[in-house]
Amino acid sequence: MVLEPDPDPYGAWWRIRGQEEDGRRWYTEFGAHTPVEILAHLTDALLEPGPKLTPPIWSPLTAAGWSYERDVRGNETARHPDGILSLERWSVEPGETFHWRAQAALPNGGGGFERIWHAYLDDQMPPHLIAAFTTALASDEPVQRGMYDVLHSHLVTQEQRGPQGEQLAAAHEVRLKAIRAAARKARRRTALTTGRPAALPAPAAPAPAGSADEPGGTPARLIPLFHPSSVSALVPNRPHHRPR
Question: Is 117 helix (H, G, I), strand (E, B) or coil?
């Protein structure tokens, strides 16, 4: 996590590196304004054992109305009906390693586009993690943001609903406790598998003053924090559009 990120939406704010039991290494990064709900869905999947059967990756998107194309070189592309959000699996040259790229971008009127957020995923990532990402990407559930604290507000409708004030803080605490319990379980599972004691988590930096957050590791940082008196739900103006 970049603690003092540049506001440039082309920079990476979040980076995750992993190594599998067979030695494969993988990497993924997320740029500015990537919806925290998508990040949280992927990091939650990190704490769970990989499923025996490979989960579907593209079907959550096509079921949500996205288009899908595959060219003769094996490059794959899915696009949201509104044309703002897309996901690609591509390689520069035939036979080279594939990469995944998700992007939300708006046309700027001059033939180019203005990027809202982006993500890159390594094709070496476990398939269930990529599937967790695409499942979150396809979700059209409303998300909570501070009232009027929304980029490109013409794309969404804000409605004041959902938990407010103390209810929101309490829900946040429940989320943190569940994540910590899942992390402890994952460490115990790793220790049993490898025969080595599981490493203790690095201490987290103190939460900002006035925040509902507590020290507790990176997953807790993926939870959105709101002003307790002005929380609203973002309802897409178009089907299946993920705000921010």
Answer: strand
CA 120 – CA 198 distance, rounded (Å): 29
pLDDT tens track, the chain, 244 positions? 566 666 665 678 889 998 888 888 999 999 888 888 999 999 988 888 888 888 999 999 999 999 999 999 899 999 999 899 999 999 877 778 899 999 999 888 787 888 889 999 999 999 999 999 999 999 988 888 877 777 777 777 788 777 777 777 787 788 778 778 877 777 776 666 655 554 444 433 333 333 333 333 333 333 333 333 334 444 445 434 444 4
Could you give the C-alpha distances from 241 to 35, 81, 138, 238, in angstroms and in order?
A: 12, 9, 8, 6
Q: Where are the alpha helices (DSSP H) in the chain?
A: 36-46, 59-63, 127-138, 165-194
The contacts of residue 124 (CB under 8 Å, 6+ apart) are 24, 25, 26, 97
Residue 1, token pair as written in the block: 């996590």
For residue 193, give the amino acid letter. Answer: T
CA distance 211 to 203: 18
